[in-house]
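$ ./design --mode recover --in tokens.txt
reading tokens...
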């Protein structure tokens, strides 16, 4: 996180299901942030733990790394 003097964390959330639902997953996470936290300057990262080529859509797992600044 590029934050200057602020404290930054990079919590990891895991989404299970269709990639098309990731935007709604982000919204849910960001709505639940405490009021004194905000999104950091670095991009949200996605790490795909399996592949749609050999995994059912409902079983897809994606780590979502969200830069949080306190």
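writing sequence...
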């Amino acid at each position: 996180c590029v934050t200057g003097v602020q404290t930054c964390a990079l919590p990891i959330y895991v989404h299970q299901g269709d990639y098309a639902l990731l935007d709604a997953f982000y919204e849910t996470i960001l709505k639940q942030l405490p009021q004194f936290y905000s999104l950091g300057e670095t991009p949200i990262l996605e790490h795909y733990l399996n592949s749609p080529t050999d995994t059912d859509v409902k079983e897809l797992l994606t780590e979502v790394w969200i830069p949080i600044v306190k």
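exit 0
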